[in-house]
Amino acid sequence: MGAGRITISLDEELLAAFDRLTQAKGYTNRSEAFRDLIRERLQAEAVAADETQHVVAALTYVYDHHERMLGMRLMDAQHEHHDLGLSTLHVHIGPESCLETTVLSGHLRDVRELANRILAEPGVRYGHLHVIPADLADGGPGHHEHGEGEGHHH
Question: Is 54-136 CATH 3.40.50.1000?
Fold first, then answer.
């Protein structure tokens, strides 16, 4: 398949912002930056289309640890979906705020359900779910092959 060529028009303000982003990210040209944006959007659309596919995801959220019983409610939600959780990192980022990142693995529908429940809790101030399709043909989540003499500790 050969390369196609397109021409697009952007207003000056949007183009200037895109050029700043392109430079900050280290792109050597606009074309590669546009290609990455298109790839990212196509992947997001593909992920969103199939609720039954297996995914890995990182759910990151900031919450007020003084919010009454919030820590217990967050823990209860994770325990009710214990089959999805692989690991959780908890960090104190201020006198009243904690940040948690939970790595999840499961069907997209179930991962989103847990994420939405956690992010809707009163006292959760910010949150984002980053979803990546997982190919289970390699033996499942958390497993990958190494060549002879190669490897690392998990």
Answer: no
| Sequence ranges of the domains in the chain | 12-49, 54-136
With cut-offs at 50, 70 and 90, classify the pLDDT of residue 151.
low
Q: CA of 86: how far to CAs of 16, 27, 31, 103, 141, in Å?
A: 41, 34, 37, 5, 9
Q: Are 110 and 150 in contact (CB under 8 A)?
A: no
Q: What is the pLDDT of residues 113-141, one digit of tens each?
A: 999 999 999 999 999 999 888 764 344 44
Please, which pLDDT band fits residue 149 given cuts at 50, 70 and 90? low
What are the angstrom distances between the C-alpha of 145 and each of 100, 102, 122, 137, 148? 30, 24, 42, 12, 10
Residues 6 or more apart whose CB falls under 8 angstroms from that of 92 comprise 65, 98
Q: Which CATH class is domain 12-49?
A: mainly alpha
